[in-house]
Amino acid sequence: MAITIAVDCMGGDHGPAVTVPAVFDFLRRESDCIAILIGREEVLRPLLQEADNELGQRARIHHASEVVGMDEPVASAMRNKKDSSMRVMADLVKAGTADAGLSAGNTGALMAISRFVLKTLPGIDRPAIASILPTATGHIYVLDLGANVDCQPEHLQQFGIMGSLLVSALEHKQRPSVGLLNIGEEDIKGNDIVKRAAELLRASDLNFYGNVEGTDIWKGTTDVVVCDGFVGNVVLKSSEGLAQMIYRGLKEEFTRNIFTKLAAVAAMPVIKAFKNRFDHRAYNGAGLLGLKGIVFKSHGSADAFAFRCALQRAAEAARERLPEKIAARMAAVAPAPTICD
Amino acid sequence: MAITIAVDCMGGDHGPAVTVPAVFDFLRRESDCIAILIGREEVLRPLLQEADNELGQRARIHHASEVVGMDEPVASAMRNKKDSSMRVMADLVKAGTADAGLSAGNTGALMAISRFVLKTLPGIDRPAIASILPTATGHIYVLDLGANVDCQPEHLQQFGIMGSLLVSALEHKQRPSVGLLNIGEEDIKGNDIVKRAAELLRASDLNFYGNVEGTDIWKGTTDVVVCDGFVGNVVLKSSEGLAQMIYRGLKEEFTRNIFTKLAAVAAMPVIKAFKNRFDHRAYNGAGLLGLKGIVFKSHGSADAFAFRCALQRAAEAARERLPEKIAARMAAVAPAPTICD
């Protein structure tokens, strides 16, 4: 059966110039997929006409007159822009016209709109954002990365379940290992919420590894790391900042004078191989988990390669029917409702 | 007036082999300082005899029969080791025999012992650990880094005051800027505790910058960054892990084959210059702030250079009478006690 992806073509720093070529590349690679290009028809039509015939048949335009700004407040995007490309994307997923949606737009607005349109799955109190990060040995899934700034132990347990099922869906891995981010490995470490979350995770049927520390993220100690959205967001952003500082610092040293520039010529292929190995673009595509429908978020600054990677992740989650699997697992976890009360 | 530093010579991964030469180097550079070398006399005496006469006159041994293990539980270190080098260090600071203390031992035990022996300053609910991190433009002070895993807004405000005074003392900087770590710059971002902390910090007489994000730590946006100890610890450890992954990844690429090894020969001086620029050893020496006395913590794996840097920080905090300054500022912040209740 064909998989249909609703693509917010207007979101992100670059808009259709990046998203439309990425969709074509995606369709070329995924022959079972169909794309709905959402955005201003007058902008998208000429771009679509550039596609070859076969691809053109698997892509169609759905006009949306508005665009949510990258810095637009969530409330304004929700209330005033009912015909934004982002909102229409969520509507198409909700209607079942699309099997999954993708946007590179404003994260806060995307989460709020997706949650409002799609609603959360039974048993899930709060949706979470799950990103993929490169590690020394492969990659790792971390959630939540900012949707929930105040988590209770039950939320962290739900994140563990959703993250585990996401890895199963995208990596075809049975029983992925789940770690709980803490300030030490011992059970006595951490605040009360984390300690109680560890108990819940240990009592669940997940492959729970136990507490992990900040260093374990990059070691790839587990397949999934679960944390509060405040902590996850700070870790993600501080890591981005540190990596940037290191790369810039290296660049500055290599361009300092004629001798270092000569050294740079020799070192360039090695540094390039290194950059390719940890190419963050390959990890683009964060899942908004816990909704009655599949929505993925691309980095706002994604290029066509990165955006295509995110499209592939969204398609794979749709093939694997991720929300149904999360709902089924939550039904098994949740206490059965009693009949007489 | 001479500054006397009590040095736990037995702590850390390397013990006296590192700490004693570091003390000599420190005394050579700081002619107004005296060191009390704490630890097993039979171990320290032969090492002290290697010092030249002038230095030998400014160093004396204080015997302590026990050592707190690097992984020893805090309760055991507190209860069973009243004559540990760490405990004796804190006792000497408490007695006023030393103006400041330094240990490279177990952080949890050092904080617990220091707090038990020295007590917290009036107006300070909880001591905090303040570390220095390199940034793109210099360095930055971050606190708390793990002493407090559940902070209230008032604690974050106290961290702001203590961090600001620490920077004034060590950097001789008037009104250092203070940022509050959050998941966005806007006031509406973050959880309730952080929002209320921002109000308290804004209402204080600190040079409060406002919210900062994870990336701002490495950009060096402010002089001080304040956060909950859980968040701070996770950020610190994940940053260590990421930096290690990047360095190891680069090393792997440069040692892959004969061509990359040749490139490494050319690139080595540049990479070395880069490493020196961000040499974490120069930033060694975290302050345990908020106590009635000065205690600094060295990284357990510190070498003699790093340990000497930490000694210099402790000495500078003593010269600047940091606890008195924190107490004076807290007295100005705290509501005056009413007489009749």
Reconstruct the topology from this structure.
Two copies of one chain form a homodimer.
Chain A: E1 3-8, H1 16-29, E2 33-39, H2 41-48, H3 53-57, E3 59-63, H4 74-80, H5 85-95, E4 100-103, H6 107-118, E5 128-134, E6 139-143, H7 153-171, E7 177-181, H8 192-203, E8 207-212, H9 214-219, E9 224-226, H10 229-254, H11 258-277, E10 286-289, E11 295-297, H12 304-319, H13 322-333
Parallel strand pairs in A: 1-2, 1-4, 2-3, 4-11, 6-9, 7-8, 7-9
Antiparallel strand pairs in A: 5-6, 5-10, 10-11
Spatial separation of the terminal alpha carbons of chain A: 43 Å
The tally of structural domains of chain A comes to 2
| Fold-level CATH name of the largest domain in chain A | Isopropylmalate Dehydrogenase
Q: Would you list the SSEs of chain A in sequence order as H and E?
A: EHEHHEHHEHEEHEHEHEHHEEHH
Return the CATH architecture of the largest domain in chain A: 3-Layer(aba) Sandwich
Structural class of chain A: alpha/beta
Provide key terms for this protein.
Isopropylmalate Dehydrogenase; 13 helices; 11-stranded mixed sheet; 2 domains; homodimer; alpha/beta; 341 residues
